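Q: My collaborator sent me two sequences in one message, no labels, and asked for predicted structures for both. Can we handle them in order? The first one she listed is below.
A: Yes, handling them in the order given. First sequence, followed by its structure tokens:
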Amino acid sequence: MVPARAATLCLTGISRYLEPLLRRILQGFEMNAPTEMSHEEVLRVKLEVLRREHRDLDEAISALSERTRPDQLTLRRLKKQKLALKDQITRIEDELTPDIIA
């Protein structure tokens, strides 16, 4: 079962919560580190955040589906958000994976 806080975050849009948090983390890292993060490192951090967000949405969808009478509109919206996240994850993974011509 998903905690109420996690379900609320999913319903209100996790990305609005995580993106400012990611920016603060990256700013703090840049202030404390002698060198800046490379583009690849930034992509890897963003990829991890997106994967976590995708998992949270999956848990929220499961919790909502287990209800006796789930809200179908909310379910559709959450599934659409989850699919959009999956597309972003795939794009970043493709960018991080080098093209190998066989």
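Q: And the one she listed second?
A: Here it is, processed independently of the first:
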Amino acid sequence: MSGGLAALLDDIAALAKLAAASIDDVGLAAGKASTKALGVVVDDTAVTPRYVEGLLAKRELPIIKKIAIGSLRNKILFILPVALLLSQFAPWAMTPLLMVGGAYLCFEGAEKVFEALGGGHHQARPAESAEGSGPAVGTPEHEAKVVSGAVRTDFILSAEIMAISLAEVASEPFLSRTVILIVVAIAITILVYGVVALIVKMDDVGLHLAGRKSPRAQRFGRGLVKAMPHVMRVLSTVGIAAMLWVGGHIILSGVNTLGWHAPYELLHHAEEAVHHVPGIGGMLAWLVDTVASAIVGLIVGFVIVGVMHLIPKRKLDQAKSHTEDAGDVPSRDHDHESAETAAAGPVDELKHPSEEPEKTQET
């Protein structure tokens, strides 16, 4: 009896060790997958605070909470099942889909660079609405609109995060993939919106400290308030660079997987050339990969930006030409009517004299 109990306890201990090892493996895999998606995470963190600009301070955290819940719902209920089914039954489709997402990141990053160079106009912030249109700021309808817009934008970024993460664990068994991606979804959502909440409330923290009696606290609070716009600009710049880097790297890896090896091999040779530099070889290799990927991302992005900007311009020109053509028709009709009036004029003048004698005879 005691021997059987000891054996059972040994089995339980072995299972516990196996479970702990599995948890460690899942944690390592989730960490690796999350690291690859870092560029999109940084961009998501930089974009989201704009949605609560101009809103009441007491409603900022509740709105961020609603956006975070919507983001988690996007990842787990919609994106994850589709990604897992594709990876299980159509794994060949993952590389093209990932490249499409990478191209979108390149487009987003290049468009922001294009705008910064004065080639375009920044879109209005989602929290802004035209005067006289849409619900008033601070109303439940306005908050619902803000949350809805933020969740829609998050869907694209979340899809890219999950796709990048899935590509890193594609060789894992189906169940392990599922658990790892759920862990990634939860961890990244908490990370992104935790940082967003901290950034959004940092101004309030600074104002609170600036109102304290301590001169040191006042200086720190004022410095915090002044620093936040610079922090947001730096975060936005890092987000743009990260999008170009991640998008370009996805494109390079994708074309290599699909059979065009030359660009990726060229990058690999460049990394090998600096990898053996004593002390800083690893950092230089990473820097070469990052810069080259960002350049590729910028080129691909500018091509897409050019196409996306030329197509609307062409449609606008066509619409303008149609409008001008349509505007010529009334003028021709007007000329025709004028001609008819001019032709009818003498007839009226001939009629009037003939009518007057009749009136005279009657009189």
